[in-house]
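re: the backbone from monday

yeah here it is again, tokenized this time
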């Protein structure tokens, strides 16, 4: 990923983004170099490896998983908050529009999770991440006995231990400080949640 030095984020930022924004795009090239892409939820886990591991699943009818047998190099892309920035928000001058955003590219080689108990654990953790663990939260235990295990042949669970993580925080760091504050104010005043969240990220990278 193209990352100018002033837009470079740390690995801790990348982990935070992956955990908060698990909806991702997984891309794997086949032997002819043709990329297969699948939109899916991935969960980052701290398993003691240098960069952690992504865990997820996809439909067995999706041929993408068949590339994991090599195992093939893959890229998972995560999007955090993003927002349009108008040049009318800056101090006067010949300036142009841009887009502020945070994003992560995570690289690794997916490996299929075969054992049914391990597959069920992948599903359990993913549901808990988005449902929570309260009394009204949905979980596999709400299904009839054996139902969850009986459905696992329809999916393929996998783990992708990460080789490296690239994090880009494009948040007006190349602008004058007054322009950055003006953009933050306009984004905070927006009724759009992505815009407001982008403003919060902008505040995090302001000079101390």
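seq for it, each position gets an aa:
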């Amino acid at each position: 990923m193209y990352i100018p030095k002033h837009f470079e984020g740390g690995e801790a930022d990348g982990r935070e983004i992956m955990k908060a924004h698990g909806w991702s795009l997984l891309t794997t090239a086949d032997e002819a170099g043709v990329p297969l892409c699948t939109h899916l939820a991935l969960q980052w886990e701290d398993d003691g490896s240098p960069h952690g591991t992504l865990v997820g699943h996809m439909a067995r009818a999706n041929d993408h998983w068949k590339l994991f047998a090599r195992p093939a190099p893959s890229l998972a892309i995560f999007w955090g908050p993003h927002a349009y920035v108008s040049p009318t928000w800056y101090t006067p001058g010949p300036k142009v529009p841009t887009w502020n955003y945070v994003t992560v590219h995570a690289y690794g080689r997916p490996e299929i999770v075969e054992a049914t108990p391990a597959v069920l654990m992948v599903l359990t953790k993913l549901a808990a991440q988005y449902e929570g663990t309260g009394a009204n939260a949905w979980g596999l235990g709400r299904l009839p006995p054996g139902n969850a295990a009986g459905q696992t042949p329809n999916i393929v669970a996998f783990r992708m231990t990460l080789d490296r993580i690239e994090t880009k925080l494009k948040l007006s760091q190349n602008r004058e400080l007054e322009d950055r504050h003006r953009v933050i104010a306009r984004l905070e005043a927006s009724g759009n949640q992505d815009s407001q969240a982008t403003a919060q990220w902008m505040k995090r990278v302001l000079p101390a």
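DSSP finds five helices and seven strands in the chain. Residues 5-174 form a domain with the Pnp Oxidase; Chain A fold (CATH 2.30.110.10).
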